[in-house]
Amino acid sequence: MSFKLLTWNVQWCYGLDHRVDVARIVREAQAFADFDVLCLQEVAVHYPGLPGGAGHDQPALLRGLLPGYEIHFGPAVDELGRHGARQQFGNLVASRLPVAQVAHHLLPYPAEAGKKSMPRSCSVATVLTPLGPVRVMTAHLEFYSKRQRVAQVQALRALHAEACEQAAFPPQDDESGWPFQNKVHTRDAILCGDWNLEPGSAEHLALQQPFDAGDAAFGADRADALHDAWMVAHPGMAHAPTFQVFDRCYRPEPVTVDFIFVSEGLTGRVRRVEVDLQTQASDHQPVLIELA
Question: Whole-model pTM?
Fold first, then answer.
């Protein structure tokens, strides 16, 4: 039994050839891995002003391109466009396995005058995998504002800790069929996405800090620590780059900003973590994890 998850910041499906091509993203993702769950960041709805033009509904197109997958889109930005159309921009989770529940959380957005920024979010899908339920959390953190990014890292830790507490201390049993009915709670989690931070940075280390008595807001039960899955699969080896591999418009050298983190209980199940270093369908490279 195995479970494969692929995460990719697709940059509204805008390739380095300056073409927006949603079908190409699906083709290249499927060529890289036979994934059970696909997590995408920077999925757009009705943004014709983006480079290459993204005036279409990308979640709807992905639904048609991925038959047999549930599609769950969580916009971080949801606004009335300058030309009257509803515009959305955010994360998408596609799963061919049953999804017990889905939630979309807006992340902190503290004011920082003069800084370019936009709202950010985390989409959470509890997937019923062959290995048991796994809480998949995918996010895209702020690029330009460290203050916002640090707050967003802490919010992700809080969301994970809260979910672990729910698993340890579940609500009252209820099979009424009402919205209060029992939910699937699990301590096992995969956090993935474009974190806009680098290996060894303060934010990277903070995300992996053990939970202790100082996290009293999350109850007496300690949450499971999070671990960088690349480091689990490749101890002592530098992270493969995931950004600016072919393009240098933001940075002079390739860098790793796309990560997968796994909770403590899943570290022993990590079989491989790989980066596709060939595709140029986005300015980021897709990252794959396989659990067994």
Answer: 0.96
